[in-house]
Amino acid sequence: MPGPNDLWRLSIHEARQTLAKREISSVELTQSVIQRIGEVENRVKSYVTVTADLALAQASKADGRIAAGDGLPLTGIPVAIKDVLSTNGVRTTCSSRMLENFVPIYDATVIEKLKRQGMVMVGKTNMDEFAMGSSTENSAFFATHNPWDLERVPGGSSGGSAAAVAAGEALYSLGSDTGGSIRQPASLCGVVGIKPTYGRVSRYGLVAFASSLDQIGPFTTNVRDCALVLNTICGHDPLDSTSAPLPVPDFTAALAPDLRGVKIGVPKEYFVEGIQPEVADLVRAAANQLERLGAEVDWDVSLPHTQYGLAAYYIIAPSEASANLARYDGVKYGFSVQEATDVWDAMMRTRQHGFGEEVKRRIMLGTYALSAGYYDAYYLKAQKVRTLIKKDFDTAFEKYHVLVAPTSPSVAFKIGEKVANPLEMYLSDVCTIPINIAGLPGISIPAGLAGGLPVGLQIIGKPFDEETVLKVAYAYEQATEWQEKRPDLG
Predict the structure, then answer these.
(1) Domain range holding 409?
(2) Catalytic pick from 11, 95, 173, 181?
C-alpha cells in the first residue's frame, strides 16, 4: 500500500478495500489528494474551484458511515466534478464569464446519487466554455495542461476532469460527452472514460449544450472503477424526460478476461485520412490482442455514412446550442451588462462580453441553420443524415457485439497549435462524434504510447449494452500493461 502522502495513487476499489479494513480513513485519503493538488495544480490547472474544506467535512461524515458498516463502493472516495454539473451551494461556472459567480440552489441528479453514496467532492474541474471545444483552451479562465506533457492540451471539453484523474488530483471524476468530450480527453490523458448510452444517465442538472447529444459519464484509472461508478450514476430519473426507464445491471458482474464468442468489427472509415500512423498501428495491435483473447475480429467492416458525421454534428449541435443558450439574457441570472440604452442593448452587450469566441461562433452557426429559408437545407438534412448513420450502426450490430476504433486521430497536440483554425480543431472529434449522433455507448481505454504520449482504444457497443463494452475493455486491460502507466509529475 502507498505511504500516507501517496494514498492518491490508489484506485477506487483499492481505496474502498483499505477503508473497509480501517487501515486508512477517508479523511487521510482526502488529505493526501488535497496535498497532491497543492503539489501539481499550479502546473496542470485542472480545477476552477477546489473545495478542500467541504471535502474534509464530507470525508469525516464518510468515516462515520464506514464505521457504522456502510459498504457502498464510493463512500469516502475523493471525486472531481466537471463544472457543467449543478452543485448546490458550490459555484458552477461552465468555465464561462457568463456564469462566473453563479451558485446553484440544487444538485444535479448524479450529484444527489453520489451524495447518497457518501461523496467527497474535492472540486469543480476546468472545461471548454459551455462544453464547446476539444482542448480545454476555450475556458474563459485558463487552459488546462496535459499531465503527460505540460506543453500539450488534455483534450476537451472535459479536459480538467481527465487531467485531474491522470495527475492523481482525484481518484475519479465526472465529465460530459456531447461529441467526444469524455472519450477524447481520456485518450489524450491515458485514462479510462466512458460515454453511456443516451438516456442511461440522467441529464437533470447538467447545463445543456446540445440536448439530444449530451451524456454524463466517469473518468477512472481502470475499467473496474468505471463499472463501479456507472452502477451508481445510471438509472431512470423522472426529472429527465429523456431518461430511459430501464433497470441498471451490476456492471462489475460483466467483467471477465475471456472473450470467446465475442464478435468484434473494425470499421475502416475510422482510420481516416490524416490519422497519425502510430495511432493507427497501436489500435490495430489492440484489435489483434483482442483476437488473441478469444474474440472473433472482422477487419472488413464498413459504416458508409461515417464521413458525413462531422458535418451533421456541426449543424445539429450548434442549432441546439443556439436554442439552449438563449436563456442567458442578463435578466434572470449570470453576467449582466447594466450600462445600456434599453433591454435589447443590454441583452446584446451581455452576450457580447459574457460569451467567448467559440461559443459565439457556434450560436451563430446554429441560429443560421435554424433560420427561415435554411432550416430544410441544413438542420432537416442533418437530421436525415443522423438517421442514416444510426442505420449503419444498427446493421453492423446485427453481426457484431462491439466495434473497435481509434478514439482520437492523434495524440495530444501542443497548446495553441489549433486555436487559429477551428476546422482543424473540429477534426479532433472525427472518431467520436458518430457515436453521439447514434446515441450509443462508447469507452476509451489506454492502448499504448506514441512518442511518450497516450493513445486510446475506442470500444463502441449496442444501445444499453454497456456490459459488453466493459467486458471487452476489461479483458484488453487485464492482458496489457497500459493501465499501470502514469505521467511523471514528481
Answers:
(1) 1-490
(2) 181
95 classed as catalytic: no
- Considering the candidates 45, 82, 195, 471, report the single residue annotated as catalytic: 82
Domains in the chain: how many in total?
1
Q: Strand 120-125 vs strand 78-82: parallel, antiparallel, or unpaired?
A: parallel
Query: pLDDT tens-digit profile of 278-317?
Result: 999 999 999 999 999 999 999 999 999 999 999 999 999 9
The pLDDT score that the predictor gives to residue 333 is: 87
What confidence tens digit (pLDDT) does each residue in 172-227 have? 999 999 999 999 999 999 999 999 999 999 999 999 999 999 999 999 999 999 99
Longest dimension (CA), the chain: 70
CATH code for the domain in which residue 477 is found: 3.90.1300.10
pLDDT of residue 90: 98
Within 10 angstroms of residue 100's Cβ, the number of other Cβ atoms is 16
Q: Is 82 one of the annotated active-site residues of the chain?
A: yes
The residue from 46, 157, 319, 408 that is catalytic is 157
pLDDT for residue 5: 78
Residue-wise pLDDT tens digits, 69-119:
988 999 999 999 999 999 999 999 999 999 999 999 999 999 999 999 999
To the query of whether residue 157 is one of the catalytic residues in this protein, the response is yes
| The pLDDT of residue 490 is above 80 | no
